[in-house]
Structure formats: structure tokens, C-alpha cells
Amino acid sequence: xxxxRNWTREELILAFNLYCKIxxxxxxxxxxxxxxxxxxxxxxxxxIAFKLGNFASLDPYHQARGIGGLPNIGxxxxxxxxxxxxxxxxxxxxxxxxxxxxxxxxDTIVKKVEKxxxxxxxxxxxxxxxVKTRVNQAFFRKVIVSIYDSRCAVSNIDxxxxxxxxxxxxxxxxxxxxxxxxNGICLSALYDRAFDEGFMTISEDYTIIFSDRLRKIKDxxxxxxxxxxxxxxxxxxxxxFYPSQEFLKFHREIIFKR
Length: 258
Prior knowledge:
With about 260 residues, this protein is mostly helical. The chain has eleven helices and four strands; from the N terminus they run H-H-H-H-H-H-H-H-E-E-H-E-E-H-H. The mean pLDDT is about 90.
């Protein structure tokens, strides 16, 4: 039977890619994405679901909640989780390239990016650099929007077109953490801009802090509607990859306008 053969590194990379993109609580054999991956790598949906559960059990947040996977989680499972955790830029790109190879007929992230670049008539090294950057940006956005259940962490707005995958440590200030989901927060466009410009930050206990500089808004009703009502309220937290305390401290100390 197919399930008796050992999992390969490529299969586990693809499984972890899926783990990143679907909300916690949807790791089951009936999930359409689980079924699609199972067909791609010739595994049963239940075996994919078990692997996703194992990855969840390696997440520090879920460990603290007592979430467990199968007993005796495989060494390679742990290695893949560690590889992604320590090198999101490379492993995210590798996983998306694998998806594109396995799904040549699907409209994958890589295919969409390649179409965009072809339209822009870029060539040579510029293409390779641009493909990797954009693929990783698209992966990051997909993961962040998913783990926040497609809702703004401040306002609960749930229209995808209005949501942004905001970086806690800005893209330009840390190449290593650009694709790390723990460096992201799902915010609607207004709060994304406020966060980037330092008019908003997040406390150690994940409550929302606004800069006093926002009091310069002349319309009191507008201030209360968009900022005052959310001041010192808890943010909506993700289902995995909690915002890093280290990254939030950086944002409070370096970006936030006190």
C-alpha cells in the first residue's frame, strides 16, 4: 500500500506548504486542498491530515495548548519544520516551485508571477530575482490572510481585497524574516498604513496601542470610529504562527511614534 512507503523530503515540504496555508481546525481528510495534495503525491487524504496534525504539534503555540500529533513524530517531519522555521525565504520558494512542477495545469503562485513578469518584458538575472521575491511575497500574503481567518486583526473586516499582510519588522530592515509568518499581521488597508507609519503598535499581551499623534485628527467622531473604539483592545490572534514577541518589541521601540 502507498502509505507503507517512507515519506520523502519533497512530499513533506509540500505537506508543510499546505499546513501553512489552511486554518487550524481544517486539517481533515474531507478538506478539498488535502484531497488535492493526496492525489498529487499518491497518499491518502487521512495520511495528509495526520502529517498536518503532526506539524501543528511542533508549533510552540499549540504545544503550550497541549495539542499533540501522532506518537513518535518522525525525524524528517521535525527536520522539515525546523528548516522552514530557520530559513523561510528559501523553503517557501522551494515549496512553491515544487507545487508548480507537480501542478503544471494549476494556476499556482509561480505561474501567476511568471505571467506578470512576462508581461513586463523582464529578462535574465532580473527575472530570477523578481520571480523569487514575488513568489515569496505572494506566499507570505496567502499564509497571513489564512491564519487570521481572512479578518483584519483590528477591525474584523473580512473582505480579502481590503486586507494586507503587514510586516512587523519592515521588509527592507530584515531580509531573513521577510517571509516568516511570525513577522506578519493581517490588517485592513487603513491599519496596515498606520502600523507601517508607526501610528499603531501591539503590546506584549497582544493589545492594540495607538500613538497620541492620532489625536491630531480634527474630526472627533472619525478618531473614535477608526481608532478610539479599538484602543487597548485585544487584537484578533492567528490560529498559528503567533506574532513574535521579539519582532513586536522591535516595532514598539524602533517604528512606533510615541
